[in-house]
Design brief:
The complex is a heterodimer of chains A (327) and B (361). Chain A contains twelve helices and twelve strands. By secondary structure, chain A is an alpha/beta fold. In chain A, β3, α4 and β4 form a beta-alpha-beta unit. Chain A has a six-stranded parallel beta sheet, with helices on both faces. In chain A, strands 7-6-8-9-10-12 form a six-stranded mixed beta sheet, sandwiched between helices. Chain A is elongated and about 65 Å long. Chain A folds into two domains: 133 residues, Rossmann fold (3-Layer(aba) Sandwich); 142 residues, Response regulator (Rossmann fold, 3-Layer(aba) Sandwich), CATH 3.40.50. Chain B is mainly α and 361 residues long. Chain B has two domains: 230 residues, no CATH class; 26 residues, no CATH class. Classes of the chains: A alpha/beta (327), B mainly alpha (361). The interface between A and B is medium-sized, with 33 and 36 residues.
Chain lengths: 327, 361
């Protein structure tokens, strides 16, 4: 009896939700407005929040109707969201896949319904590239290269202890994550240009401040003559700053620090001179996404891979742009 | 010290060893302590200055000090976990509780009128620990009153708790600027790290409460057989309830220290998987997962072992891809050496190899 009641109640809820969904799409009946369904990963970091804000804002500016769904880091939620977008017959679907695999079935459904799909920020691992129109996101290898190139250009200043060798310790991101692998690869290829620069130790700090601090504490005790820290994100760099200060050294002066991301706290540390160089990993890809969506719907050719517009920041630039930063 | 913290270990079956050497060999903490020493020796071989301690800005500085300092969160969580496990329970929610405590404390400090004031830290930390008491009451209620399996009951908060912490921090990394708060993790008293002293203080307090009163015995009685102990007049429900509250408070303290370490709280990652490290520390320390017996000294050694392991990995340059494997290898080795049955099997094999006749006879 109780079971039945619960089942009935939940079915009622589902149908109400479905009705609500219907009325939503009915309301957007006027066909001149483009309807975009966007399935976000979640809200796991400041970076992601800025990413969401950017997409919402630029959708409004471009006159899109945005149906936004937050998957809370779960693939099944994201698949559900995409299915509901297909049922609601949106004009275009965009999403940042939580994981790389397992998308073929739902993307096939979208294809059959003739709804173009754009990937943002993260790629999917599928042999059939016809399942999506394009992938808009950062080039992590390029980010690593930019960091390495800055170090090569500033090699003379970066040799803090003046022994002719530049010893770099690397704080890696989560082992196996694409940004960690690619940033390390890009950095290694860029510093190969100068034989004096060498990565003497490298260990994962899991993209967290605590991880970055603990690994850096250990490096400070075990490695001699550290000149430079290359951290795969700002948070680990900020953790490293604490470890360096605790060792009685001055971050940014006694040890040079290069990071990737350019989140607010990182930029502040850069402006204060505790970090020396930050390569941006831009979450504000909303405007580019809207532009791409319009091109796809107008049947224009779009490249298979679109790289986010990204820049780099030195300490002077950080002081300049900090007041206007959104995240 | 060991006597207050630890009961005489159960003698190994079939091995009557009255001498001091025998007692040492049979002691269950022998192997984890040996493992720590071996790791330190490897560290020193890889890096001769590993054990060097110097004075830096008026306090001690070096790998050993870092190990002590970084062991504090796991030690605190494991301390609470020890008592929970002694009642035949388990608490999976400690990581999430740590995240909630940190989230509450950091947001309170940031919102307070004078962000840098010591009073802001005291108020915020008290609020955070009060929240932990409530969370512990919730866990204890599910386990002791509703009789839900501890692993399931605490799983509820393990999953929901992180969401709660995210809600409190708005999903953002919250960064308080407060010297008093920062000192919880990075501060020193008499040259020693405050975090480590807090953890040791809690261990000492627990030791006095459980070993100088009947409380410890009652906890063990509940772990051996809750029904029998209830019939014998032990308030099993109250005791079970209390250990979950204690576990949550310990987890909350750990959360505060982790957050203070980097002056930030990231609700997603703070204390992630610390429940597993804590359970590991408890088990390495000789507390049985089946309940009914616990060793606080063992838990301290277990936590130190984990902290030493974590420091050894970057220090001797194990690549990131292999570090979980290395960790697992050390853990399984210690567990095997600790197991009387595994040691007996090794011994028999060794004897057989040397004197095949002796076995036949």
């Amino acid at each position: 009896m109780v079971k039945k009641t619960v089942t009935a109640a939940s079915m009622l809820l589902v149908s109400v939700a479905a009705l609500a969904g219907c009325s939503d799409s009915d309301a957007s009946g006027d066909d001149d407005k483009i309807v975009m369904g966007f399935a976000q990963v979640g809200a796991e970091s400041g970076w992601r929040t800025a990413n969401t804000e950017s997409i919402k804002e630029s959708a409004e500016e471009a006159g899109f109707e945005l149906k936004f769904s937050d998957a809370q880091g779960k693939q099944e939620n994201q698949i559900k969201a995409i299915r509901s977008f297909i049922q609601q017959k949106v004009d275009v679907i965009a999403f940042s896949p939580v994981v790389e695999t397992g998308w073929d079935a739902v993307l096939q459904e979208a294809k059959r319904a003739n709804i173009p799909v754009i990937l943002t920020d993260r790629a999917v691992d599928s042999e059939d590239t016809s399942l999506y129109e394009t992938f808009l996101g950062s080039d992590f290898v390029l980010e690593g290269e930019k960091a390495g190139e800055w170090l090569v250009e500033n090699a003379a200043d970066s040799d803090v202890d003046g022994d002719g060798d530049i010893n770099v310790v690397q704080l890696e991101g989560t082992t196996g994550a694409a940004p960690a692998i690619d940033r390390a690869e890009g950095f290694a290829s860029a510093i190969a240009a100068d034989p004096a620069i060498e990565v003497t130790a490298s260990q994962t700090g899991d993209f967290t401040r605590d991880g970055g601090k603990q690994v850096m504490e250990s490096f400070l005790n075990s490695e001699d003559g550290i000149d430079v820290v290359f951290a795969h994100n700002d948070d680990m760099g900020l953790g490293a700053i604490e470890a360096i200060e605790a060792a009685g050294l001055e971050p940014g002066v006694d040890v040079k620090i290069i990071t990737v991301d350019a989140v607010h706290d990182g930029m502040e540390a850069l402006a204060e001179g505790k970090i020396n160089f930050i390569v941006e990993c831009n979450p504000l890809l909303g405007p580019q996404l809207m532009e791409l969506a319009e091109q796809v719907l107008d049947d224009e050719e779009v490249p298979e891979r679109v790289v986010t517009e990204e820049t780099t920041f030195t300490q002077e630039q950080a002081i300049e742009v900090l007041p206007d930063r959104k995240y | 010290m060991t006597d207050t913290l630890d009961r005489a270990p159960a003698p190994e079956r079939g091995a009557a060893r009255p001498g001091l050497a025998g007692r040492l060999l049979g002691h269950q903490l022998l192997w984890p302590v040996l493992a720590i020493i071996v790791m330190l020796v490897i560290d020193v071989i890889a890096n001769p200055s590993f054990l060097d301690v110097r004075i830096q800005d008026g306090h001690l500085y070096g790998n050993v000090i870092d190990i002590a300092r970084n062991s504090a969160p796991v030690m605190l969580v494991a301390l609470g976990m020890t008592l929970v496990i002694a009642t035949r329970g388990i608490d999976l929610s400690v990581g999430a509780v740590a995240a909630i405590a940190a989230a509450v404390a950091c947001t309170r400090i940031v919102e307070s009128a004078d962000e840098g004031a010591a009073s802001a830290t005291i108020l915020a930390s008290t609020t955070a620990l009060a929240v932990c008491v409530l969370l512990g009451v919730w866990n204890g209620f599910l386990v002791s009153v509703l009789g839900i399996q501890p692993i399931i009951a605490t799983l509820v908060l393990m999953v929901a708790g992180r969401g709660l912490a995210m809600l409190i921090t708005d999903g953002q990394i919250t960064t308080p600027t407060n010297d008093t708060f920062s000192n919880l993790a990075s501060g020193f008293v008499l040259g020693l790290p405050i975090a480590f002293l807090i953890a040791l203080g809690m261990v000492a307090l627990t030791a006095v409460l459980t070993r100088r009163t009947a409380l410890g015995m009652l906890i063990e009685a509940v772990g051996i057989n809750p029904d029998a102990s209830r019939l014998a007049g032990v308030r099993a429900r109250t005791i079970t309830w209390t250990v979950y509250v204690f576990g949550a408070v310990c987890a909350g303290l750990a959360g505060l220290i982790i957050a203070a370490n980097t002056n930030s709280v990231n609700a997603n990652s703070l204390g992630l998987w610390i429940e597993l490290d804590a359970i590991l520390a408890v088990v390495i320390g000789g507390t049985a997962l089946t309940g009914g017996r616990f060793s606080l000294a063992g838990t301290v050694v277990g936590a130190l072992l984990i902290a030493t392991l974590v420091r050894t990995i970057p220090s001797i340059g194990i690549p990131s891809e292999a570090n979980y494997l290395f960790k697992a290898f050390v853990v399984i080795l210690v567990c095997l050496l600790q197991s009387p049955r595994a040691r007996a099997a090794l011994r028999v094999r060794g004897r057989r190899g040397a004197q095949p006749k002796a076995v036949a006879a």
